[in-house]
Amino acid sequence: MNGMRKILAVDSHTGGEPTRVIVEGGPELGGGTMAERRDIFRERFDHFRRATVCEPRGNDVMVGALVCEPSDPECAAGVIFFNNVGYLGMCGHGTIGLVSTLAYLGRITMPASGPARLKIETPVGIVNAMLHRDGRVSVKNVPSYRKAKAVSITVPGIGVVTGDVAYGGNWFFLMYDYPGEISLAQAGRLTEYSERIRRAVNEIYPEVDHVELFGPPSHPDAADSKNFVLCPGGAYDRSPCGTGTSAKLACLCSDGKFAPFDTYRQESVTGSVFEGHVEIEDDVIFPIITGSAFINSEATLILNSDDPLCWGMP
Ligand code: PYC
After folding, report:
1. Catalytic residue chosen out of the listed positions 54, 68, 75, 91
2. Spacing, Cα 306 to ligand 1 middle (Å)
3. Residues 105-114: pLDDT tens digits?
4. How far, in Å, are 71, 114, 131, 216 from residue 102 at the CA level?
5. Over 60: is that where the pLDDT of 174 sits?
6. What 3-state DSSP class applies to 202?
């Protein structure tokens, strides 16, 4: 690369968790499925991921969302999510951020009444989104399920922990009875605790890349539970985590503790809340997550070939 390259991005946050939607200037990934394009992104353009979400332009919490032409003509957009260390299958807070960004850019037409409905293609399947008239966004996620119930694992420095392994668009280990306090003041301790769990869980379930700890909500009238979610790159989710809430709903449904028309409210470690519902079709659980995103900035990222950190911190 010689000289300057410009990338247009819109930044938002969903319950405190940032999403950087790349709207122009992304790599050319061809016309395959979103999973095929994600693989090309990873193999040939990983430097673009680092340049847009890692320091010095981004940070460890930032989630990138590359908007693509969908391969399925029924979809309004395709998207590939990525973070400081790699690629995410789905991203709940990121999809809410993406829909709010498309609305901000005038790319969603509201019908005369009711919500706008759009399909979005992700590497792990099509999700159905609704932009409500008050700006909230609901995402009907990909099928979610529990793979293993009440798995007991010996974690060095902690002891035996028990939890479920479940899929909600990403893979989670869910520990329901975290013995300490879930609060921002404890974020360092929660991160270290979850890292230890992840390392031990990965000996048996290498696919698990997120750890989700649960405790009581701050205000029982405002939420049903509070969580702390460790993401693959070591940052914790500031939002209640859409895919993590989906994994939790799948577990609750499998235990017969949650059914269509019930409402579940998941509070995050920062105090933001997602509302969850489920639809069950032919015994397949589709979680529906509702939240709000707010636009923070429109940015032109400048990649200057003279900059030794042009492609992000090593
Ligand atoms: O909301 O699904 C989510 C998510 C995954 C990683 C960060 N946020």
Report:
1. 91
2. 34
3. 999 999 999 9
4. 18, 18, 10, 35
5. yes
6. helix
